[in-house]
From TrEMBL:
<keyword id="KW-0732">Signal</keyword>
<dbReference type="InterPro" id="IPR029058">
    <property type="entry name" value="AB_hydrolase_fold"/>
</dbReference>
<protein>
    <recommendedName>
        <fullName>Feruloyl esterase</fullName>
    </recommendedName>
</protein>
<feature type="signal peptide">
    <location>
        <begin position="1"/>
        <end position="21"/>
    </location>
</feature>
Length: 255
């Protein structure tokens, strides 16, 4: 049986001086040729930033209810319906030509999944459409889902508030009868991805993120989380790494 093991590294962005004394991240046997990222909301924006900036190292991205690269320039994105994709593309090629980010030609053939609910009133669905078009300028292989009547929330098929119900209480996770994470990962990694297990069998560990820059100043939490599937605990087996960026109000402090 061919199984694709996914290690999930959840990086928390959060201003805080609290440290829980987590241990250093161990080294794992990671297949560097298939590192992928994802994120929801501001985490989705971060996932695209990270993928485009480090395109030589990152092979794919899944963006849920996110915003395009370069929306840090407010003028580009103040009117979601009028985002000019060619301006964003020029920002990318300009940064790459001065080597501030990786060469955009790495994005050619990269896998990208984009989800945006029709009832999202927090991040305009136009942003999802535009960021997909921006990726297509550079030859990314995209797949999208824009038809579900979802509010601003991460879609699952087993947990969360009703799909049309905005829900801080479930950390913006909604049961839309749509297995967002699995569908996205299938696009990023291919059909060799094993079906989800009925219950999580791995270990969710905290690790000290300060050696990677986690501090109050960097706005990245000193503690990160890493999920190690059972099959990846044996370090002779090579595993794929997936990095998930959370959105605003989704950190362990709820901020
Ligand atoms: C980016 O990569 C392409 C293809 O390898 C190459 O032609 C181009 O010169 C590179 N650009 C920079 C700024 O290095
Ligand atoms: C992507 O690469 C293919 C060749 O592998 C090339 O034909 C195509 O023009 C490239 N697309 C972009 C957007 O650079």
């Amino acid at each position: 049986m061919k199984l694709t093991w996914i290690c999930t590294l959840v990086v928390l962005f959060q201003v805080s001086s609290v440290t829980l004394g987590a241990e250093k991240l161990q080294s794992y046997n990671v297949d560097r040729s298939t590192i992928t990222v994802s994120g929801f909301s501001s985490g989705g924006g971060m996932a695209m930033q990270y993928h485009v900036a480090f395109s030589s190292e990152i092979q794919g991205a899944a963006i849920f209810d996110g915003a395009p690269f370069a929306c840090y320039k407010v003028d580009f994105c103040k009117n979601p319906g009028k985002v000019v994709v060619s301006n964003l593309a020029k920002e990318i090629t300009g940064l790459a030509s001065t080597k501030k980010i990786d060469n955009e030609s790495n994005l050619n053939g990269s896998k990208v999944f984009v989800f945006h609910g029709t009832k999202d009133t927090v991040v305009d669905p136009a942003f999802g459409h535009k960021l997909e078009k921006l990726y297509q300028v550079f030859g990314a292989v995209t797949k999208n889902e824009y038809t579900i009547k979802a509010v601003h929330g991460f879609p699952t098929n087993f947990y969360g508030a009703a799909c049309g119900s905005f829900s801080p209480a479930t950390h913006f996770i909604n049961n839309c009868k749509y297995h967002g994470s699995n569908i996205a990962m299938k696009h990023l990694l291919g059909d060799s991805l094993a079906s989800p297990a009925s219950s999580a069998e791995g270990q969710l560990l905290q690790y000290d993120q300060t050696e990677f820059g986690g501090s109050a100043v960097s706005s990245m939490d000193p503690t990160g989380y890493v999920y190690i599937p059972t099959g990846c605990q044996d370090k002779t087996r090579q595993c794929k790494l997936h990095i998930a960026f959370h959105g605003c109000l989704q950190s362990k402090y709820g901020s």
